Amino acid sequence: MSIVKRELNIGLPKPLRVLHISDIHLTYADSRDCEKKRNMAKGRTEAFGKYGDIPALFDKYMSYGRENCDLIVCTGDIMDFVSAANLDELRRVCAEDNFIFAVGNHEFAQYIGDPKEDFYYKMQSYTDVQSCVPTNIDFASTVVGGVNFVTLDNVYYDFTEKQLELLKAECKKEYPIILCMHTPIYEEKLFDKVTGGGKWVSFLCGCPTERIGYYPKDRFEQQKADDMTMKVAEFITTQPQIKAILSGHCHRFEECTFPSGLVQYVTDGTYHDSAIELLIK
Question: Which of 32, 41, 123, 176 is a Cys-bridge partner for 84, taking CB atoms 3.0 to 4.6 Å apart?
């Protein structure tokens, strides 16, 4: 197992150990799905097979978290695409004790490579996904060990006004907040690192428009931040009540610190046999 261990000191009376996983990409499909989806599932299973047995890797990390940690946080993409069998697995995992889930973009993917994923695309499977998750997938908070774990949906590189209102309300409570979401927030050094100094797309949320002008047109339109997204990103990264961000999506381990001192942990994909173990003290 490749577990990156980190410590976060926020003054807890009793330490809290958290396993942070993300991007599992299960590729199940069965007779309840159409032939096209079953064929896609076969191809995706073969593609991910070069990394190992993905369900077995997932089970291994879940077992480790149950045995060694107080909480497991998954920041999205348990499923690689929407299928009846993948939804069954999502439902099963989210029903476990001491498990918190922030939805990922693949939770809404009908077919890999669909040309445009937006609000209307998400609505095709939104109800099915929500039915598998016991908390609201747009925004939810769960207090564990004196820490408020806030999950929110930013899978299409945006935040909403409603999420800002709810987050402000959570910040008025007495608990320190760990923010859990699929897509990492832009930070200058992180952007430079994941883009190779401006060679590639970053897949970060809240990027300044002037920094992504070189993106291909489709990626620019996909990831261009609106005014509300930039407003929420600024609030998150300057709010002292928020102590850390847990995210995934980039399929690589990264860590960055904002000028406010807020730390963002981006975990590598579990399909890469990787996770973060965070000791909060």
Answer: 32
pLDDT tens string 73-88: 999 999 999 999 999 9
User: For 5-18, what is each residue's pLDDT tens digit?
Assistant: 999 999 999 999 99
Domain boundaries, the chain: 2-280
* Residue 68: partners with Cβ closer than 8 Å, 6 or more residues away: 17, 19, 277
Tokens of 54: 């993905």
Q: Contact, 266 vs 248, CB < 8 A?
A: yes
Measuring CA to CA, which residue among 237, 173, 244, 174 is closest to residue 205?
237
Residue 251's Cβ-count burial label (10 Å; 0-12, 13-18, 19+) is middle
Task: Give the model's pLDDT for residue 120.
Answer: 94
Considering the entire predicted model, what is its pTM?
Answer: 0.96
Please give the mean pLDDT across all residues of the chain. Answer: 97
42-55: b or e for each residue (b if 16 or more CB lie within 10 Å)?
A: eebbeebeeeeebe
Contacts of 233 (CB under 8 A, 6+ apart): 159, 185, 186, 205, 206, 225
